[in-house]
Amino acid sequence: MSVRRKRIVGIGGTLRAGSSSERLVRAVLSACADAGAETTLFDGAALARFGHFNVEDTACTDEQRAFVESVRAADGLVLGTPGYHGGVSGLVKNAIDLLEDLRGDTRPYFEGRPVGLIVSAAGWQAGGVTLSALRGIVHAMRGWPTPIGIAINSVEQRPFDANGDLVDAGIDSAVSAQARQIMTFALEAHAA
Ligand SMILES: Cc1cc2nc3c(=O)[nH]c(=O)nc-3n(C[C@H](O)[C@H](O)[C@H](O)COP(=O)(O)O)c2cc1C
């Protein structure tokens, strides 16, 4: 009997070339792919093409619809944001708000799914409070934040080399552990 590959969807990053939050989301997705997942990334550029969420306008662009459908079908997620002014960036939050379309599903929002969380900020304080804010968002959306959340300090830590490869052993090990937690939860929750 063939077992369907788990679908893990990554959302996040900024419009900055070499965005560290986006690279970390990619790194977690890549570790999930190594464990057998099929992965999809909605990076900063993709999020920037979405219009602003408007609660009074239910029309969707094709890209918004593909995004919502991808999250609807996901077995697990990775959310990554920079810490902007002490919180989640507008770009990432707008994408999350577009998931309001999942409200009436039999499995609403992120229900029953593990969600890995990533923050990159220039200071430890914004890293901590933004990670906490992301956890609050995932709880509000009925998802299961993985025990391992990753917050990096992009001033004190340089996790990537000039080629964009993850070269910090500690962060690499957190990325692997988070991916393992996402995959374990996804496999156990949806064993079909
Ligand atoms: C508009 C803006 C607001 C920011 N606000 C904060 C902040 O409140 N605290 C902080 O530590 N870093 C702040 N930063 C720094 C970013 O969080 C940091 O550079 C982060 O690593 C950027 O992520 P990226 O590499 O994915 O672009 C801010 C940066 C910008 C552009």
Automatic annotation (TrEMBL):
<dbReference type="Pfam" id="PF03358">
    <property type="entry name" value="FMN_red"/>
</dbReference>
<feature type="domain" description="NADPH-dependent FMN reductase-like">
    <location>
        <begin position="7"/>
        <end position="148"/>
    </location>
</feature>
<dbReference type="InterPro" id="IPR029039">
    <property type="entry name" value="Flavoprotein-like_sf"/>
</dbReference>
<protein>
    <submittedName>
        <fullName>NADPH-dependent oxidoreductase</fullName>
    </submittedName>
</protein>
<dbReference type="InterPro" id="IPR005025">
    <property type="entry name" value="FMN_Rdtase-like_dom"/>
</dbReference>
<dbReference type="InterPro" id="IPR050712">
    <property type="entry name" value="NAD(P)H-dep_reductase"/>
</dbReference>
